[in-house]
């Protein structure tokens, strides 16, 4: 009995059972390729390949990245990309990859984040000076001496 248990334990890591990441890792290791080689071949960053092999698709930017990178990775290691993308879609079917909308750090009524009243008055004064200057320029440029004569 113990020999049967040892035999099963010895074949378990090589079997492609499990998620898409485990199957991709097993295929890559069967070809004796490292992640840097796959990254150079597919132009997928090594950190994303590691995430895919670990099955942590939520660490990728979106569901489209998970499916697309898995398809490219599967092609690079000789697996059927359609089957692998179906496996990934099944793993992502629970909707766990939906991201929460980030909450804004600034609340409109937060007095600590609003400009001071002095800054508001300085801005109003600058706008008034600009308006008076623009009026003076246009009245002198277009007003005097433009009559035919």
What does this protein structure show overall?
This protein has 2 domains: 11-92, lambda repressor-like DNA-binding domains (434 Repressor (Amino-terminal Domain)), CATH 1.10.260; 115-142. It is built from 7 helices and no strands. It has helices at residues 2-11, 20-30, 35-42, 46-54, 63-76, 81-92, 117-142. Helix 2 (20-30) crosses helix 4 (46-54) and helix 5 packs antiparallel against helix 6 (81-92).
List the helices and strands and how they pair.
Layout: H1 2-11, H2 20-30, H3 35-42, H4 46-54, H5 63-76, H6 81-92, H7 117-142
Helix pairs in contact: 2-4, 5-6
Total beta-strand segments: 0
What is Rg?
32 Å
> What is the ordering of alpha helices and beta strands?
HHHHHHH
Structural class: mainly alpha
Mean pLDDT: 80
The CATH topology assignment of the largest domain is 434 Repressor (Amino-terminal Domain)
Sheet having the most strands: none
* CATH class call of the largest domain: Mainly Alpha
Large-scale geometry: elongated
The count of helical stretches stands at 7
- The CATH fourth-level homologous superfamily of the largest domain: lambda repressor-like DNA-binding domains
Q: Tell me the count of domains.
A: 2
What would you say the CATH architecture of the largest domain is?
Orthogonal Bundle
Low-confidence stretches: 1-16
Determine the fraction of residues in helical runs and give it as a percent range. Answer: 55-70%
Tell me the span between the first and last alpha carbons: 119 Å
Task: Indicate the proportion of strand residues.
Answer: under 5%
